[in-house]
Specification:
Layout (H helix, E strand, L loop, with lengths): L7 H5 L6 E3 L21 E3 L22
Parallel strand pairs: 1-2
Length: 67
């Protein structure tokens, strides 16, 4: 089952999540801010998505996220 924008709200409920692979999903930048409370997230894979560089600004506040 492909992950879509509306699924990010559910995923964001897993506050202790450390790794998340959203590669080749149908997510857009409009809902990435749903992930803003995942303070332990250190690995996020976004390969093969239609996200733009500007969309990634929503992830700026994630303290554990590695570049």
């Amino acid at each position: 089952m492909p992950v879509k924008d509306e699924d990010l709200k559910t995923i964001a409920g897993f506050e202790n999540l450390r790794k998340l692979n959203l590669s080749f999903t149908q997510i857009t930048g409009t809902t990435l801010n749903e992930l803003k409370n995942l303070k332990f997230l250190h690995t996020l894979s976004l390969s093969g998505t239609n996200l733009k560089s500007a969309d990634l600004a929503a992830l700026k506040g994630l303290p554990a996220l590695k570049a």
